[in-house]
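Incident log, support desk, overnight shift.

02:14 A customer reports that sequence design results differ from what the structure should imply. Their input is reproduced verbatim below. On-call engineer (initials T.W.) acknowledged and began investigating.
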C-alpha cells in the first residue's frame, strides 16, 4: 500500500485544488489580525474629556451652555487657581443648584478664592467630546480605571489561550474543518455582542469568547493548509503570515474611515460569517482522516484533489497506508514522553512566549511614543512584508533553523541598541527599532512553520495549539509589562525584550532541521529526526 505522501505526489502536491483552498483559508489571516490588534483603535485615548461637577448637567441645560462653555467653567478655574489638576481626574468638591448664576457660577462661593476650594476624585462623572469614539469613553476607562484597558487585551489573549487548549484538542478529535467552521461562526456572533455590550463586564466576557473562537479559526486553517500540500510546498504557511500582515495594514484604514468603536468592531467581525461558505469548497484534511481510521473518505478526497489538478490516480491506489500508531486522545504527556519530543516542546514553548511578548510589546509601544497613530501603525505593518520575503528566499536554501536563530538574535540586539540611542537622532532610533520589529516578525512567522513540522500527524494540531498557548501567555503579560516598566523608564521594556530574544535565538539552534523532509506521521518519526 502506498503512503499518503506518495499518493499526494501523484495527485499533485500544490496544484489548482490546493491553491484555491490555500487562497480561501488565507483570508482568515486578515480577520484574525483585525482581532489581534484591534485594541489599539478600539481603545484610543479620548481627545478631550473632563470631570463634571454635580449639578452641572442641569445648570448647563438651564443656561444653554455649549459643552465648551461648561468645560471652561469647570476646568479653567482649576488652572487659574494654580492647581496641578487639569480637570480630567478631579473636580471641585462643590455642587451646583438652581441658585447658581449662569454668567458666573463660581461667584456663588463669595470670598472663597478658587484656589481654596476643595477637590475630589472623579467617579463615573466624565464628559467626552466624542462619547462613542472608543471603549475608553464608552466605559470610562480613564484615570483610576485606565488599567482596565490593558485588562481587555489580556482577556482577549486569555481567550486565545483557552482556545488553544480546547479547540486544538477538539480539532484533533473531531476534525479540522468542523472546528474551523464552528469557530468562524463563534467569532462572528461574539463580535456582534461585543459591539452592543451594555456594560464593560459583558464586553469582557464576549471578548474572551471571541478570543477562544478566533484562535480556533487561525490555528485550524494553518494546519489544514500544511497538511494538504507536499513537503516542498509547506512554506505556504509563511505566505499565510503575509495575509496577517495585510490585515495589520488594512486595520488603520478601517479605523480611520469608521468614526465609532462599535462600527470598527462590526467591520472586523462580520466578515467571519462569509467563511461559513467554505463548507462546500474546503474538504476535511485527508491526513487527519487517515489517523482516525477513515481511509475510504481520505482516498475519496485524494481522487477529488487529483481530478481538480488534472491528474489521475493509479487504480492500485485503492487503499492508503494508515499509521500503525494507536490513535488516542492526545495529552501533554504525549509531547514530553520521549527525549526529542520533550526537547522540541520545551524550546518551542519558550520561542512562542518570547515572540508574542516582544511582538505585541513593540506594536503597543507605538501608542506611547507619540506620532500619527494611523500612519505609524500602517508603516509598522508594511515593515513586516520584507520579513516574509526574507523567509521565502532563505528557508529553502539555508533551512529553517539558522534564519530562526539569527532573526531572534538580531531582534534582541536591535532592541538593546534602540534603548540606548539618544532621542536627538530620531531617524537612527527609528531605523534600528524597525530592524528589531523585522527580526521578531521573522521569528514569529518561522515558529509557526517549524512547530507544524516537528510534530506527528496524530499530535500536530494539539501540539501546535499547546505550544502556541505560550504565545497567548506572552500576550497576557505584554501590556502590563510594557506600561508598568515604561512608567519607570521608557526604554526599560526594550532591555527585557533584548535578553529574552537573544536567549531564544541560541535555544532554537538546538532544534532539528526540517527542510525538505516529509511531515512526521508518528512519534517514532520525530525521534529519528537529526
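02:41 Re-run completed on a clean worker. Output:
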Amino acid at each position: 500500500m502506498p503512503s499518503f505522501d506518495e499518493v499526494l505526489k501523484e495527485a499533485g502536491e500544490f496544484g489548482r485544488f490546493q491553491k484555491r483552498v490555500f487562497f480561501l483559508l488565507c483570508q482568515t489571516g486578515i480577520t484574525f489580525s483585525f482581532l489581534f490588534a484591534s485594541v489599539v483603535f478600539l481603545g484610543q485615548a479620548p481627545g478631550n474629556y473632563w470631570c463634571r461637577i454635580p449639578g452641572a448637567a442641569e445648570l448647563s441645560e438651564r443656561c444653554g451652555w455649549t459643552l465648551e462653555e461648561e468645560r471652561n467653567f469647570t476646568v479653567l478655574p482649576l488652572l487659574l487657581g494654580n492647581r496641578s489638576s487639569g480637570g480630567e481626574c478631579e473636580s471641585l468638591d462643590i455642587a451646583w443648584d438652581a441658585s447658581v448664576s449662569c454668567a458666573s457660577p463660581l461667584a456663588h462661593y463669595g470670598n472663597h478664592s478658587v484656589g481654596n476650594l476643595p477637590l475630589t476624585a472623579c467617579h463615573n462623572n466624565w464628559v467626552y467630546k466624542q462619547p462613542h469614539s472608543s471603549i475608553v469613553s464608552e466605559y470610562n476607562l480613564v484615570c483610576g480605571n485606565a488599567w482596565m484597558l490593558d485588562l481587555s487585551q489580556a482577556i482577549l489573549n486569555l481567550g486565545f489561550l483557552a482556545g488553544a487548549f480546547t479547540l486544538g484538542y477538539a480539532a484533533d478529535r473531531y476534525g479540522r474543518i468542523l472546528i474551523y467552521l464552528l469557530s468562524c461562526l463563534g467569532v462572528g456572533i461574539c463580535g456582534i455582542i461585543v459591539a452592543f455590550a451594555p456594560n464593560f463586564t459583558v464586553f469582557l466576557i464576549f471578548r474572551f469568547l471571541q478570543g477562544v473562537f478566533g484562535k480556533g479559526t487561525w490555528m485550524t486553517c494553518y494546519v489544514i493548509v500544511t497538511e494538504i500540500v507536499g513537503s516542498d510546498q509547506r512554506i505556504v504557511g509563511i505566505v499565510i503570515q503575509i495575509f496577517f500582515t495585510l490585515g495589520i495594514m488594512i486595520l488603520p484604514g478601517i479605523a480611520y474611515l469608521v468614526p465609532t468603536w462599535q462600527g470598527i468592531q462590526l467591520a472586523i467581525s462580520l466578515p467571519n460569517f462569509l467563511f461559513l461558505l467554505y463548507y462546500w469548497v474546503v474538504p476535511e484534511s485527508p491526513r487527519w482522516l487517515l489517523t482516525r481510521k477513515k481511509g475510504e473518505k481520505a482516498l475519496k478526497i485524494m481522487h477529488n484533489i487529483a481530478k481538480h489538478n488534472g491528474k489521475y490516480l493509479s487504480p492500485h491506489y485503492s487503499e492508503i497506508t494508515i499509521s500503525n500508531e494507536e490513535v488516542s486522545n492526545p495529552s501533554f504527556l504525549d509531547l514530553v514522553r520521549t527525549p526529542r519530543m520533550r526537547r522540541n516542546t520545551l524550546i518551542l514553548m519558550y520561542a512562542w512566549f518570547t515572540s508574542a511578548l516582544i511582538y505585541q510589546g513593540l506594536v503597543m509601544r507605538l501608542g506611547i511614543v507619540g506620532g500619527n497613530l494611523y500612519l505609524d501603525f500602517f508603516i509598522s505593518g508594511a515593515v513586516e512584508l520584507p520579513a516574509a520575503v526574507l523567509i521565502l528566499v532563505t528557508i529553502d536554501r539555508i533551512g529553517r533553523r539558522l534564519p530562526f536563530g539569527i532573526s531572534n538574535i538580531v531582534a534582541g540586539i536591535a532592541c538593546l541598541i534602540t534603548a540606548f540611542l539618544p532621542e536627538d537622532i530620531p531617524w537612527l532610533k527609528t531605523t534600528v527599532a524597525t530592524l528589531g520589529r523585522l527580526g521578531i516578525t521573522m521569528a514569529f512567522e518561522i515558529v509557526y512553520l517549524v512547530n507544524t513540522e516537528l510534530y506527528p500527524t496524530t499530535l500536530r494540531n494539539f501540539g501546535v495549539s499547546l505550544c502556541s498557548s505560550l504565545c497567548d501567555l506572552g500576550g497576557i503579560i505584554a501590556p502590563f509589562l510594557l506600561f508598568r516598566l515604561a512608567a519607570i523608564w521608557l526604554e526599560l521594556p526594550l532591555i527585557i525584550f533584548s535578553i529574552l530574544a537573544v536567549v531564544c535565538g541560541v535555544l532554537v539552534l538546538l532544534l532539528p532541521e526540517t527542510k525538505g523532509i516529509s511531515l512526521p506521521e508518528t512519534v517514532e518519526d520525530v525521534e529519528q529526526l537529526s
